[in-house]
Design brief:
Oligomer: single chain
Helix content: 10-25%
Order of helices and strands: EEEHHHEEEHHEEEEEEEEEEHEHEE
Strand content: 15-25%
Number of helices: 7
CATH class of the largest domain: Alpha Beta
CATH superfamily of the largest domain: Fumarylacetoacetase-like, C-terminal domain
Distance between the termini: 41 Å
Number of strands: 19
CATH topology of the largest domain: Fumarylacetoacetate hydrolase, domain 2
Radius of gyration: 21 Å
Largest sheet: 6 strands, antiparallel
Amino acid sequence: MRIVVFGDDRRVGAVDSGGVVNLSEAFLAMARDGSEDAEDDHGKPRVPARLLTLIDGGQRALDDARRALEAARATSSVDVGPTGRHIVHDPRAVLLHAPWPGRRIACAGGNYPDHLARMTANTDRSLTRSLEETVTNARRAGQWGFWKVVDEVAGPGDPIPKPRRTERFDYEGEVAIILGMSVKDIAAEKAADAIWGFTLLNDWSIRDGSDRPQSMSYNFAKNFDGCVSMGPAISVGDDPGNVDVTLCVNGAQRQSFNSVGMIFSFGEILAEISRDFTLRPGDVVSGGTAAGTAADMSLPQPTGRVPPDLFLKPGDLVELSSPQVGTMTNYIVEPPA
């Protein structure tokens, strides 16, 4: 099931062959004959209209949502539910938003060997390593990553302002999981139980050398207005460890990879960041990016200067795709005055 957030009031829907289904309205329509209770034992809707509330509803809410989706397949796009809202919407007429539950976003760094090997070699050609050596060294050194500190997340079709302070603005296509339960000190082998679904995430990055050498910093290169986009959907019920991803810039493919290639699995990442730290339903954890970013493909010149040619500029079109999730398109634009 592909979960989306759509419309002016940002309701939860599901993408189906017939269109975008308003799940809460579809369940109310299914229950209208009295054969189902529309509310749970606490008087709350069994299929909520908001994404985080649906996630908090656990497996029962998901099961009810799936049954509502199945019932809606016999519904016309002109039919309305008990509250007067359409049950099925034409996808061409629906505005999709980022399927972000409004919670925290953690991102793994250097977690694909081809990208890590290129970035390391671009820093110092004497550090060129095979992929096998890169994996061994990375696992020996341990995980690292960062948080995206945002109050808004861009979605499919949203413009991404190029920060004024950068001449080297980069994309990073990633697979990100959404948690469905609270976890703390979770074992890697138990992590699958905590994953509600997965989506695509673009970790927009500044590559002008603005990262601070200190072990703790404000992560300026990863945090700015428009620094992350997510979507177009959340895939529920599939394996986030086996997701095909491609990224194109102006129609030319730059990245093509599968999440099976991660150095540290999602389970290992959750085990690491949940040590003495409680992760909540709706928290997002992204698994890192693979080779093909502008940064890892741009070889420094003898002077040390990194050519800007492959980096993003206003007017560029970036398309991030997966068969399990769909395609998210974003244009790069000038920052607002």
